[in-house]
From TrEMBL:
InterPro entries: 26kDa_periplasmic_antigen (IPR052022), SIMPL/DUF541 (IPR007497)
Signal peptide extent: 1-26
UniProt keyword list: Signal
Record has Signal as a keyword: yes
Organism name: Thalassococcus halodurans
Listed name of the protein: SIMPL domain-containing protein
Any one biological process term the GO annotation gives: DNA damage response
This protein's record includes keyword Endoplasmic reticulum: no
Amino acid sequence: MKLVRALTVVSLVALPFLAWNSPVIADENDIAARLSVSGEGVATAVPDMATITLGVRAQAETASDALDQTSAVGADILAKLEEFDIEARDVQTSDLSLNPIYTRNNSGNEAPLIVGFEASNRVTVRVRDLDRLGAVLGAVTGEGANQMYGLNFGFEDTDAMMDEARRKAVADARAKAELYAEAAGVTLGRVISLSEQGGFRPVPMPVAEMRMAADAVPIAAGESALSASVSMVFEIVQ
């Protein structure tokens, strides 16, 4: 009889220990409802710098003559850029090529012959004074630049603009969340998560034409924009 009582006491003591170590399964009603939304913000401003890519292309009977012609024009272009106080850090040779020119063989029986060479020299320039951009373009073409590969407007400092775009993106996401919550008849709670989607990107904007001097190339600077996107998750209060 004493042995039976002892076993009974041991089993009663062990039950709380086993219950404490058992996994706890939460009721579905204890899990907070959530609302996920995305938002986008755009900040616009007048650009304060431009990047242009220009160059010269020349053909000659020999490779050295073709290369000499492009080199001479390239040197004149660099000298002209210095006259506009464009710093060396803003000028970079982006491409230099030399290729043979072949005859067209219509019969197909003979191999094409090299009849000359074509050389090209490409330079990328950052212009930080947009008031002189048209004059710069006019000057370099006057020095022999006969290739234009692109003109892009931008900003020297994008931090302030990106901060504005991010604030607008968060405000856009919150406005959407409040609208959805109101439509669903629930109350919007705290922010559970906030993340930025990708990096900033430039946004094309309609340009407002800005004419330069009469002897310069007409340039339309207009406005440029930067965009930011965010994803937010809100708690829903039932």
